[in-house]
Structures
1.
Amino acid sequence: MEIVETCGKGTLSTGELSTKRSITSIYDDDDDEVVGFEKDAEIMMMKLIRGTKERDVISIYGMPGLGKTTLARKVVLIGKRYLIVLDDIWDVEAWEDLGICFPQGEYGSRVMVATRIEQVAKHLQHHSDPYSLSFLTSAKSWELLEKKVFRGESCPPDLLEAGLQVAQHCKGLPLVVVLIAGMIAKMDKEPSLWLEVASDLSSIGLGEQSMKVIQSSYDHLEDHLKPCLLYMALFPEDHKIPVDDLLKLWMAEEFVLNSETENMEEASRNCLSDLLNRSLVMVSGMRINRDVEYCSLHDVVREFCLRKLTEDKYMQLTVPYNPYQHLHSTESRLCIYIHDDLVEQLDYYEYQLDKIPMLDFKETNSLEFIAHPKLNKWNNLYSNPLDLVVKLRFVRALHLMDVESPNSWATTMQSLTRLRYLALFVKQFELKWISHLHDLQTLHLKSSERIHLNAATLSEMTRLRHVNVDNFSLNLQQLCLESMKTFGHCEIDFLWRLPNLEELGLHVQDVPEFPLFPIPEVHTLFLHIYLPNFCVSFGWERYFVFPSNLRHLNFSGCVLTEEMVLNIARLKNLESLTLKGGIPFGRSQSFYWDVTNVEFRTLKYLTLLTFQMEEWKASEESFPVLEELSFDYSLYLKEIPPSFADIPTLRLIELSKCIQSLGVSAMNIKREIEESTGCDSLQVVIKGTTFVPFDVTLFGF
């Protein structure tokens, strides 16, 4: 349950929320513009909070791209009633299967359904009439287009007339407006070019407009971005794709050139950024530092990509992206995606490629295969998916993290000499079983048993850049792994052998006796403390002199002494700090955090997760550029320091499962900012249950 407070007057309540306050709140999200639907949202809110006490179904229907899903996601529910949102319902049978799962009762609960089909909406009607979502007006279409293209700035006068024509010919479809905005934002700011776009739009019928616009956006992509987009369509519909995995898969498939450059990761991030800026890819999850954690495809964009793959028989010429060379100076490769029809033909013709009808050309030796990111979808054909890929020896990426691989996997792996990405869930593992994979870049292992890694073998795998192994031991030798960029779940003694690490996960289980961080280049650190002795050991803080270039620090399980706080505050580039499960410990008392005389001069994002703190003192100089403050399971802290009202950059306070007085203090800060500046610049978000303060004995020394 989520409550979003954006107006300051009135008392904080978890049971009721005024309609005016809720409607204001759903238009404050910069990532999803909802323009022209203010009246629609107000009507939907009335349907949700008024009317019958029995369970009701509110349907929204309209053609693809009109904004049904966006509107549904932006409308909150309140109190103890439940709200279920069913997106993209195509037939009545789907509702009949799901409807029996939702509790009945006179609590005012609601089920919201989004569908393209009017008859489905009418059939599901209980008490409320289905709501037909209207098209944007020309004025609202232009407002949305201008926001997307000029990022909040006004359109130059010489482009205004052409821009208005483009908006008018989008025919009121928000999806079309957003896609066109992503395309023309990359064009030269010439009225004649914009008028050509408007002319093209005017010739497209309404029913086919979304697909035509996506086709146009696709045609305007640089060659190296096209396979990156099509590859994403292989993930299931509405799947939240982890960005870290996606970028590594792109590198493995050589969509980003597999060269010796140190900036392959940066190049892949640039590719994703381009697709996001063109609105072909959506953000579906953000980290606290506002980096994209998950992304996804709009269902219409995904439908286009699958059509495109089918039309081309799942084959394409892939031009790898090399940021250091001209785009057309790199030789293209002919690739085919492994799909269901191809799997059946491969099996029928016993993997004799020259006999397979869909491969109707002679030069099969030049054909390279791209495996599906979720290869276990073929388990209905193969009890062991490895039986398939072993016959297609030139696959580059293998992700089998969702199914436990059989013990025979090591033998099978010997023929897969081209692998660059390997993610496995195994019972047993020895590094020598994959030592022949000299091109391997990413290794991710999950095992029910402890995995032994040999440093000498690791050093022979010179292109290995990213390692994440859940439970491992390491045979230490005098070796240096210079190519390694990320290493998850690392141990202290191994750190100095990784001089070029950028992202590190470190577990500390003993009181350190020497400085922990000899690597200055680390910019992201996940530090886990598992030592109860830290509660009674002092002086160890001097070994926590963090990497000087650190930008993101996630610190869990620590007794946060004054010296430790100063070590963190000295970091000149630190942007985000997450403190989890720790305790502030001052000279005079514990569970009291006083940073009045400490300045975190670059910190933008601060998150406190189950942080055991009863009282917090800070000055307006403590966090001068803070933008977001988040609490989760803060059961003891009763008040946010009032000085946070004096931070000019603060725009979000988010609380989840915190005591009620903490939420009250957040709303007081919001109210003070509004009264002093006249601006509604701070958003307060309260999620989950707000606990009433209660007596509790905190664990101590």
Note: The chain is about 30% helix and 20% strand.
2.
Amino acid sequence: MTIEHPRLLLIDSYDSFTHNLASLCRQAIPDCALTVIKNDEYNVSALRAYLPYFSAVIVGPGPGSPDNPEDIGVVKDLWKLKNEDVIPIFGVCLGLQSLAIEHGAVLKRLNTVKHGQLSHIHHHGTDLFRDVGPIHAVRYHSLHVELKNDGDVEELAWTEDDENGKVVMAVHHKSSPFWAVQYHPESVCTEGGGLQVVSNFWRLAESWSVRAGRRAVPWSAALSETFGTPWPQATFSSPFPTSRKHPGVATLVLDRSDLTVVDICEAFGASQEASQFVLLESAAKPGRFSIVGCLSSSTLHVKYRVGDTTVSLTKDGRTFHEALHTQDIWTWLAIFMRSRAIANGNPELPFWGGFIGSLSYELGVQGLHVQLDRAEKGFSDNKHPDVNLVFVERSVVVDSQTGKIYLQSIAPNDDKWLSDTITELQALPIEASNDSPLPLGKPSITLPSKTRYISRINQAKEHLFAGDSYELCLTAQTRISIASTGLPSASSISWERYKRLRRRNPAPHSAYLRLHPTTLLSSSPERFLSYTRPPGTVCQLRPIKGTICKAPHITRAVAEQALVGSTKEVAENLMIVDLIRHDLHGVVGDDVKVRRFCSVEEYETVWQLVSVIEGKLKDDESFPEDQLGWQVLKRSLPPGSMTGAPKKRSVEILQTLEDQERGIYSGVFGYWCVSGGGDWSVTIRSCFKYAEEQSVEQQRDCTVGFHEEWAIGAGGAITALSDSEAEWEEMITKLQSVLRAFGA
């Protein structure tokens, strides 16, 4: 008998690979529907009432230990259900360990942790492994089980490690319909042990159900409203008003390849420290377009801090606060943007108008439902807005490939500004973009304590050995203080710093964002997320894990050997790729592809190990496409490359290991276009400062002196293979590119 339209219950132990497993189940089990619950949402007494509606249970992986009730939740009770409640179960990783120890196995630590590493899996070609050939599977575990010879659970597959000896890789229960694997069948790099093994589980589950006379109770629409979350989410009804008609984008084109981005910026006020200014610059290949926001006093400035009940809006010199009521900041932003949607700009240009600015790391932490206690010592110093955006109606886009300059306006009846501005740019003289002198004053640099940082690395590794995380991206902040006796000119000191930064460390995702009270200078090499404008929106993420500096002897072949040939570098990249696939699957459903895995890309000063992951909605999805990009952005923050995996548990651990909030660092900056497209980069290789409005004005008064306080964040991904001294040196190396802008 074949079970038609089976319904599976997927239990999520707060992992960052859960949606990958859901997608694998959908591929392996025809016409199945999935419902997802967290492992602590229901106790076993409450869950028993819902089990009859399901054909099988999938127990996903997760951080922690199966003998810790807080980590395993209700899963431990599923293996001991009474006969009338027994249901076929397939466990992965933590699921296998729980099944085994609840039936007498001994839980132990591996001598050598296996996080993001591949192993050859041995099996007999029976049971779960019928018709399965050779398996090379990805492992994410530091704990393993030793089975009792006379126990109820027996081995189906194993691997042989040089360091750990024989390790159990799959088991089944001798009399109950329980199966599990230790490796990760859903990982992008698992070969041979994924689709067919899950398909075999379903074959075995169907056979057991026939023998036991078990039939699932028909599902009802009412249950979808009260129990769990469907995957993928069937509909995304829009609470937003229909977008209103907009006059569109007015565009003029100037062909002056002799004008530099710096020339244009200075023509639009980059040198005036007291004014707002935004630049997103492709200062190095493979970047192409640079975007200059042409701001004025009437430009809307939007600010928000996590925990606030209002959003701050500044325009024409006045600030007022709008209540969020029951909506979150993301919904407020989306409603604002949808009412200003435009569809008739130049399709060749990435940006027509819209929001430009930065989103903090803590905004993403809030989205993970991790508690932020800003009253605690060390966490009250971060005064930067978590959302800091301006709504850009006038912009200049520079195409470095063609040399063309595009002037754009989405403001109504703005022809005069366009004509006046193009005349001004046509008349702009060609001048050498020399740096202006900076105030005299030697920078004082306060590095993190090396002893403390190495201690935190060792604490992080202990969490990895205990199974709490697979990778932890530990960071720390360096402070730069510069006191000077006067200003040599009226020019913006931060702008002069940015010019030095872009020259010394040119990067494809550079930025100068002067949105008071925050100023951000960035030479980021890493695009986080881009999404094309609808229709047919494609979301692309490009994580970087693995970097080697250029040198005369570092050819592509040498770089590839050093990066692709490194078990540690590839493992770091793989963990983040699998995490990003999970984030994307959580929004778009099944259609997620890894376009490139661990390819070496050449940049101006470095070689980087980059992967490319894309996701899009299927044609029959009912998700409004103009919401797709921002929904992926919201659900993907903070960037996985800056947290580790699993994301939620890693963020919780990092809060105990880091001495201050990260703020702008390791958040994102970029744009949200009125067309529905967007492009955001990871805030790394950057520095930022906080200055009250009156301090900005004081900078123009040479009599009071000048004082700068900048922060630079840096760190690295800590894995079980990390060497503490090497990690410290890597963190210091990452600081150098930014410190050079300060002559340090």
Note: Residues 714 and 734 are 6 Å apart (CA to CA).
3.
Amino acid sequence: MDCRVINRRRHTGLQQLSSFAETGRTFLGPVKSSKFIIDEECHESVLISSTVRLLESLDLTSAVGQLLNEAIQAQNSTYRTGTSTLLFLVGAWSSAAEECLHLGVPMSLIASVMSEGLNSCIEEVESLQVPIHSVCDHIDSTETFSGLSVSLYPSLQISSGTGLVQKEHDLKDVTSQSLAFCSLSGRPVKSPQLLRLQAKFEADENISRTPQTLKNNLLADTHCRKSVLTHSRHFSRTDCHWISKPGGFLEQLSAAAPKTYSCSNLAELEVGLSHGDPSSMRLVDEAVRLQHQNAGRQRGSHTRLFPFDISRIFTCCLPGLPDTLSCVCPGYITVVSMSTATLVKELQNQPVRVVLVEGDLTENYRHLGFNKPANIKTVSESVKVQQDSSEELWTDHVLQVLIKFNVNLVLARGNVSERLAEKCTDSKRLVIGSVQDSVLQAFAEASGAVQVAYLTHMNENCVGSGVSVTTWRSIPSDTIDGISRMAVVLKTEGINLVTVVLTSPVIAQMQTKEDRFWTCASRLYYALKEQKVFLGGGAVEILCLTHLQSLAGQSVNKGNQDCSGWLHNTSSWLASSAALYRPTVLKCLADGWHRYLSTLLRNTAVYSSDSEAATSIQCHLQNAADSGSPSSYILNEYSKLNSVILNLGISDKLEPIPRVYDVVTPKIEAWRRALDLVLLVLQTDNEIITGLAHTQKSSQESEGFLFL
């Protein structure tokens, strides 16, 4: 059991938030460390590597724990990405708010200035947004993600044309391979072969040679630093000095001529959003292209609109199988009992008629909103014989209806009566329960079926046709999770469904593999939905840090003058306090970003200590301030291929690296949720001890333990 010491003299709620957040700091950055969670009662353990799974294993019964869990679950259910950032910033900004309280800053000022500072950062980083309006215009003619990303691996060849040639290479364990330049001690190892990085990402760029002058307002308020990683989303870069242009483009500043840049290649976008997990993004790419092909067949070959519908993509997890069997297939793949194996084989050679049930397929199911007759009391339901008789009559009636309309396949959203399933199997009819709403809707659209609440209410117009039922692969019956189950494929002509089959020989890794796939899919979905991404690699966070430091410096320089003006005009204590404490609060907020960046650098396994990482950050902060244009400094360092940041003694001949991108709204919402949670706990916790009485308490009374 993990525990943290809680100082009762200080803000209890903020300390609890910091303690919870500390448990997930290893999930930030490219070198993530998995955790074994051991149950103290039953001594069972589980391997987790994500924030969501971590919180599922912690004791969150306290009020603060429940609030934290709600914030993480809200972020995950909406975006499926950004939870590690959210958790870490909750801890960093909790410590920042606690420090402000310790320095005597009024609580109301902490809340207002921190909110103001974050809003200012969000406005500032808009200059780092990159438009992606045309990434899907030529999806059929551009190279795939697999073709573009293979240069992340050793033993690759660059063709004389525009593409990349991939040798046969297993894509599993991609994260460990891409970071294999680090030794076990955490120090970089000179191994040029392990850093054969991507050499093609300049193809499809829009270049403009029209000169532009730098806008003064983009040169004023920010201070920035640079990047440190090559394979991760953290601290990577592109090519030169850039400023934001009205169209959302980034303009390069150079002595020769400026140019504009936007991402116009889907594979490049996917590589940038993979964040060190190309194996998952490869599956996402295949699913996207399969959806595009389906949409093209339905709307014609010259379809311009690209419908990436993440609600029509599903996963089927098959633990116990080799990683090489993971693939993407059209249609709906699910797992059924081996008792239906003979039935599935018989259905393979014939067109199947299907009926869709929108609720449970049980005798006692009633639709939502159903009202029982009033003033009627049943006194015989406790008699098991009569219950069995009632269910048997219902089962026989449903089976007769299926026989009448020659239905071979039943898909139900809810649970299915075991007795009905057995009888249907005996009569050569396959019944599958727990089917998602989107699957039912897709089969309704493609087969012409109409969803019904009760099978006894169906008619001929409710039955769909043209569905095929096949087995997925010929594998041993006990291979899947050691249980006698088999995977079946259900599809029909024109159905807009894609299933990603995820396999792993290690059962404990199955959940992690599925989570990673959905994270990559969600990043790409929101990028395409918003038609814009952030320059990644830590550039956004660096800009926030330098911008806050700049604002804090401006407040210090103007503090006396502003304070005098406020006092003369309003004689307000709050106004004078704001002028006095504003730099302090902004500095504490910036310290949260600094901790975030320092942890990222530490988790690259390049820096051996937090102080070493902090020294590197401070060096670039100073360089950004001296440059006169922190935003241009960041973008310039982001673009360098052999800068001091990248050249870590690994190789003197680094090749061009892939651009890194971040999704916009999920990242910003993670920031907002983190600060909102901190300020909520700050303003609602009533356990703050003030006055002189607390100094008389013993250390035992003033300290406690938080068990996680």
Note: The two ends are 7 Å apart (CA to CA).
4.
Amino acid sequence: MHLWLLLLILTPGREQSGVAPKAVLLLDPPWSTAFKGEKVALICSSISHSLAQGDTYWYRDEKLLKVKHDKIQITKPGNYQCKTRGSSLSDAVHVEFSPDWLILQALHPVFEGDNVILRCQGKDNKNTHQKVYYKDGKQLPNSYNLDKITVNSVSRDNSKYHCTAYRKFYILDIVETSKPLNIQVQELFLHPVLRASSSTPIEGSPMTLTCETQLSPQRPDVQLQFSLFRDSQTLGLGWSRSPRLQIPAMWTEDSGSYWCEVETVTHSIKKRSLRSQIRVQRVPVSNVNLEIRPTGGQLIEGENMVLICSVAQGSGTVTFSWHKEGRVRSLGRKTQRSLLAELHVLTVKESDAGRYYCAADNVHSPILSTWIRVTVRIPVSHPVLTFRAPRAHTVVGDLLELHCESLRGSPPILYRFYHEDVTLGNSSAPSGGGASFNLSLTAEHSGNYSCDADNGLGAQHSHGVSLRVTVPVSRPVLTLRAPRAQAVVGDLLELHCESLRGSFPILYWFYHEDDTLGNSSAHSGGGASFNLSLTTEHSGNYSCEADNGLGAQHSKVVTLNVTGTSRNRTGLTAAGITGLVLSILVLAAAAALLHYARARRKPGGLSATGTSSHSPSECQEPSSSRPSRIDPQEPTHSKPLAPMELEPMYSNVNPGDSNPIYSQIWSIWHTKENSANCPMMHQEHEELTVLYSELKKTHPDDSAGEATSRDRAHEEDDEENYENVPRVLLASDH
């Protein structure tokens, strides 16, 4: 009698005993795809197809739902599962709610080898026609203009199906295409596993081989048949309804590769188990043991490892081999007359971590040691610090996530976070990967950040990463700066706008009565300014706006009142201006004649050079007197401009030089300011006043006849100002 030994290497068994059968999840209506807005009922039942007793637990995308009824209605897509008190978790069923106009539906459930019905449905199915069905982009035969078709003997091959159809849209036919459908084909039965009655058979002892599988609880009536093989030879009588094969005695020539097949009696579905090597030995070695140095199997990357395989007993030449989980080939093999052998692994790497065992064989089949786990601890690599923020440019108030991660390193890893070398906090990654630290940003959080990682084998520091926190602008303050307390025509007005908070650059806009005056950009503190040479039209409300790309802020309105006559009069035509200029020239000539006559009457008379005989001390102009001509672009003040913030009011306007009449009148009457120090000039001033009045009678304003009807009202106002300004000025001077 020969003895046989069964050894199943790297083929773990599937424990079926003690496991509750899976629950069954059904759909009503039985289609896995529905239109968005429709409802689908889910029903959870036990293996006997009866409704669940007690509470039913429902899951969507592996998350527990609150409902506990055995039947629920859903409107959201997802992968649904259920379980009951007497059953385990059901297989996942994906239910889709499509917003499209055309969908392709498949009946559920569908198992391997089933014939499945596909249905092409439109939202308005009455207006849907010429339906065509496709598989993997190719039209299925005999599938034209059918409401539904049957696909025979489907399998789990991930084929994709879709359909097309025409829909009526008024007088047009529009082609609609459904989304691809992957039919959810469930396993009819599990892949078989070959099991042996003993892991250490002896020559001559019996052996029982079992081909284990499990039918779906929804198809318990399907009939299966089994067949077992050694290498390419069929064992027993071939196909049998029994999954077991009894071998009376195992012999050395029975060593080989064993496997089994399971198929339905209709031959529609067939599955094969993995191969298991069975070896028979005559006098086996026993108590194979694996030992690892350093003791305990705890190594640091770069160290050397020794694997020591030994047996308690065995005869003859023993072949030792070393194996690592997940590798098909052995790590090494030695044959020697010894009960112990060593394998040296130099400079271990991270990939060397895992479970190891060794095997010893002295005749036929190896005997395995128990598994021993080797841990290779990896020092952390330089971590990488990244920022995660809700926008590309961080703003005050944003929640910033600092994420630090070392791509290599054994867990647990402790991460520390720094801002300008000041510790912010730490976070641990127990299972490896990275860790994060959150900050609610303020302006003070700008600067350099870094992190370090430490798993006890030496800390590593990241490179510094700079962060700039952008601050939105605050509400700006508009300040008006003028050379005097009351603004007059011709003054140079500075509009200054400034936000006390906000990241640069800041763009400032200036407005007069909601009309844009201009803009100016500030790349540092202090705000920005805009200058105006004032006319009476510049009276009104002013405001400004500040914007640095994070939202504009508008200032409060500041009111300005400019008094005096406008330098830009639209009512005067070129002919009127020319006549008035001639009047001024005649007036100046008359003044010169009077001055000459008086000089001849006085003893001093005129000097030889034609200049006045008055001494400088008699008629010297005060140093504080203003010039007779004001350039609006070149203000004459020498003191700092006075700021005005709350609606200043101005009066006593000095006319500028753009109007020749008022400029000249002001220039002539301005000499009245010095007449008190010069009696001769005072007398001349009075005589000029009389001459001016006479001259005005002979040169009336002739501009009104040339004005357009649109400007006539303005020109009459100009004539009134022309008549009144000299009298007002003379009256104020006297």
Note: Residues 1-17, 566-578, 599-682, 698-734 have pLDDT under 50 and may be disordered.
